Amino acid sequence: MKSAIIQARMGSDRLPGKVLKKINGRPMLEYVINRVKLSKNLDKVILAIPSASQDDILFKLAKKLNTICIRGSEKNVLSRYLKAAKGTNTDVIIRITADAPLIDPRIIDEMLDSFEKEKCDYLINDVRHKGHPRGFDVDVFFTKCLEKTSKLANTDYHKEHITTFMLDHPEIFKVRYYKAPKNLCRPNYRLCVDEKLDLILIKKIFKHFRKREYFSAQEIIEYIDKNPKLADINKNVKQKT
After folding, report:
1. pLDDT > 90 in the chain, percent
2. How far is CA 97 from the centre of its chain?
3. Count of CB atoms within 10 A of residue 113's CB?
4. Which of 33, 51, 108, 182 falls 20 to 30 Å from 57 in CA-CA distance?
């Protein structure tokens, strides 16, 4: 069973409630869920949210969108993911974050195909390793690897950032980096939402493509290539590490 698990929460240090910020009148998280559901290679799409009362609104949105919703720890995201995976008989996890409203289902499918061919434990399209721009981030790994991580990881950092333990221990896990094709490799483009400037850019992109429900990563990048001032909007936003 291959499942996309989308992690989301209302609490955000830099842009509180960002997952429900409106884009063309609809909450950002709705775009994330609907675009992930367009993947042809997924068996399930799951929303993993905290149990806190402030996140009840996310549970209601999942219900409205007919999406499985699993609730767990806010800070221990590792345990939340494991609960979601085990509760749905998931063997392969595709990790998606709720701050990526432009996530492309084609990239998900391509990475799943590559994951099978690579015979690895964990596949990541990290922008620092010639991957796609931030905002098209996809992580693919086995549930059994997350179970092993759960047994070995003992720091809050590794429990909150669930794949960092695998990256930090290549002697235990076989990690591979997915390299984006040249037409999609733009390390200076930032297409996720962490701050207000990110949201301004995302809204402009959605406004441009507003007549269509789906538009691809390639179309988005071509649009920015032709309008380079767009990339300047959030070029000074620092990625949280």
Report:
1. 95
2. 3
3. 11
4. 108
**End-to-end Cα spacing for the chain:** 31
Domain span at 23? 2-232
Q: What is the pTM of this model?
A: 0.96
CB 62 within 8 A of CB 165: no
- In 3-state terms the chain splits into helix, strand, coil percentages (rounded to 5) of 40, 15, 40
Distance between CA atoms of residues 58 and 177, nearest Å = 32
Question: In total, how many domains does the chain have?
Answer: 1
Q: Do the domain assignments include residue 76?
A: yes
| 238 belongs to a structural domain | no
pLDDT digits (tens, 9 = 90+) for 5-27: 999 999 877 788 999 999 999 99
* Strand runs labelled E in 53-145: 68-72, 92-97, 122-124, 139-142
Residue pLDDT, tens place only, 140-179: 999 999 999 999 999 999 999 999 999 999 999 999 999 9
Q: CA–CA distance from 44 to each of 5, 88, 91, 202 (Å)?
A: 8, 8, 11, 26
Angstrom distance (rounded) from CA 200 to CA 213: 19
CATH number for the domain spanning 95: value is 3.90.550.10
d(CA 61, CA 73): 19
Geometric angle at alpha carbon 189, from 37 and 126, rounded to 5°: 65
Residue of 10, 43, 29 whose CA lies nearest to 102: 29
Q: Which residues pair with 47 in a beta bridge?
A: 6, 69
pLDDT in tens, 68-113: 999 999 999 999 999 999 999 999 999 999 999 999 999 999 999 9
